[in-house]
Amino acid sequence: MPEPAGPSVAIIPARGGSKRIPRKNVRAFLGVPLIVRTLQLVQAAGVVERVVVSTDDDEVATLARDAGAEVPFTRPPELSDDHTGTRAVIQHAIGQLEAASSTRLGLVCAIYATAVSVTPDDLAAARRQLLESSAAFVFTATTFPAPIQRALRRRPDGTCEMIQPEHRHTRSQDLEEAYHDAGQFYWGTRDAWLSDTPTFGSHSHMHVLPRWRVQDIDTPEDWQRAELIQRLHDLEGR
Predict the structure, then answer these.
(1) What is the pTM assigned to this prediction?
(2) What number does CATH give the domain 9-142+179-236?
(3) CA distance 56 to 106
(4) N or C: which end of the chain has fewer CB within 10 A?
């Protein structure tokens, strides 16, 4: 794919509400507000012309602006609840940015504030992959730690059964490796984001991360584990 004519933009969805970890996006992660860590990561990668935060929250907006990001609009309430998907938020942001500048965007990277273990090299490599493959999306993924073909189901009475009993005696090394969305960032073309093209499919490629660098941050336990992982990662990089 040739380099799109429009500017590349990173959009960070970061609403103010969070039920399981209150004020998650402004909470200090190893001494730095979560939203600021992600902004610094994107800035260090140097792969976008604009870094934009989509938020409904004044404190998030202030931290983002102070860290060098743009917050050119306030996300509306109907896109700020627990049920709104990322696609709708990114589509809204693209619409707002293009309407304000009368400029068509090029590549768009949606990156979560919780992408604390992603590196600038990850962002740059995934962007190159998008251009070289002519894919619609490139997203972070990692492998399951155990063969999903040998997964178990728990019955209502507490007993269990194999979901795929035909693999009861199949050796683990003979089973196909499976991957899952790592939930860190998603590079896509502007047109792919604005279309109904699914994020996962034959038009998408995976940027594979090692399992130890993938951690959702949805609960206090997740947060603690993510900080421990990041400390080890920081030590390794010294």
Answers:
(1) 0.94
(2) 3.90.550.10
(3) 25
(4) C
